Amino acid sequence: MALIAILAGDGIGPEVTAEARRVLEALDLGLTFEEAKVGGAAYEAAGHPLPPETLEVAGRADALLFGAVGDPRFDNLERAHRPEQAILGLRKAFGLFANLRPARLFEGLEDASSLRPDIARRIDMVIVRELTGDVYFGAKGRGTTEAGLREGHDLMRYDEEEVARIARVGFETAMRRRRRLLSVDKANVLETSQLWRDVVIEVAKDYPDVALDHMYVDNCAMQLVRDPGQFDVILTGNLFGDILSDQASMCAGSIGMLPSAALGATGKGLYEPIHGSAPDIAGQGKANPCAAILSSAMMLRHSLGLTEAADRIDAAVAGAIREGARTGDLGGSLSTRAMADAILERL
Ligand code: NAD
Ligand code: IPM
Ligand code: MN
């Protein structure tokens, strides 16, 4: 019997994760659930955003269902105690280097997208984002220059193995789709990116059936808004992938629609909406639970091999949206609970 660790976190994290759990329970898959605190909630209860008892539950679990972390009350703590360290720490602790962020437009959401309907309709891509390296995990610090000015620095760095393993995930993902991989970097300026590009080209030799292209990240940001239908699989680093996926979400209707999977070398994965704790709407029952619910489908597919149940969740979300179920972010007025009910009715 598979054990799912529920790490709901802060803000709307608990609100959307509760709905994802309800959907999983309705499918009667014999899963067991254990909850543990992360982020600001864990800091308040245990003095640390990722306490040992949470790591212990996560360590035993077959998969982790994560909500979101972040709380403005803790934005001025020293960095090691800030809520966001919980998600960074989990990714690192379990070697979850590969982040899949699929973005597609659900039928009926053309009007929610910031793009013209004829452009929005064509979005169907996966962003493959490296998740345990880059400027996120390089040496960082604050200090004073010789001239007495305050300074800050974060080292952007990758080694060739880190690039090669995420590149393989990108090529494998492309093989299961339309066989087109676009590697996004800033090789015209950054040495990290030149290494990235060199290694991706080397790995491409093992995937002769995949058409590989390269694009600079600034152009990619523009092309995402101009014509997102041109993309199949985007392969990119940690920082660029973070930014491009939030942008892609709005092309697809809302940040409340995009799920993600964080995977490593074993079957264990962490599944979470790409959005954060949304302090501006937390506690009001307004959050869109679709990203969390779709993340639970990714969990069934990638960690538990329950493909059919995953397909049922995806179809129920698509059905509810097609028939007009909408939370506020999508231009409607359903509560988080009512949106999930609309999905549950179609399971
Ligand atoms: P955010 O994603 O939390 O919110 C951005 C905007 O999108 C807000 O207006 C919010 O109301 C809206 N939004 C987000 N999710 C929504 C949903 N499901 N339904 C409807 N509207 C939704 O980003 P932010 O405001 O930059 O960050 C808030 C906090 O979340 C910060 O502390 C940040 O560090 C954290 N964060 C955490 C994660 C994570 O846990 N993986 C991801 C992103 C941000
Ligand atoms: C995300 C978030 C995180 C990231 C933060 C909260 C550390 O923005 O999951 O997209 O930057 O990876
Ligand atoms: Mn983000």
UniProtKB/TrEMBL annotation:
Domain of life: Bacteria
GO cellular component: cytosol
Top-level enzyme category: oxidoreductase
Reported cofactor(s): Mg(2+); Mn(2+)
Binding-site residues for substrate, renumbered to this chain: 91, 101, 129, 218
Catalytic activity: (2R,3S)-3-isopropylmalate + NAD(+) = 4-methyl-2-oxopentanoate + CO2 + NADH
GO molecular function: 3-isopropylmalate dehydrogenase activity; magnesium ion binding; NAD binding
Chief location: cytoplasm
Annotated Mg(2+) binding sites: 218, 242, 246
Protein location: Cytoplasm
Cofactor note: Binds 1 Mg(2+) or Mn(2+) ion per subunit.
Site, Important for catalysis: residue positions: 136, 186
Signal peptide limits: none
InterPro entries reported in the protein's UniProt record: IsoCit/isopropylmalate_DH_CS (IPR019818), IsoPropMal-DH-like_dom (IPR024084), Isopropylmalate_DH (IPR004429)
Any one Pfam family match given in the protein's UniProt record, by short name: Iso_dh
Role: Catalyzes the oxidation of 3-carboxy-2-hydroxy-4-methylpentanoate (3-isopropylmalate) to 3-carboxy-4-methyl-2-oxopentanoate. The product decarboxylates to 4-methyl-2 oxopentanoate.
Name the record gives this protein: 3-isopropylmalate dehydrogenase
Organism of origin: Sphingomonas yabuuchiae
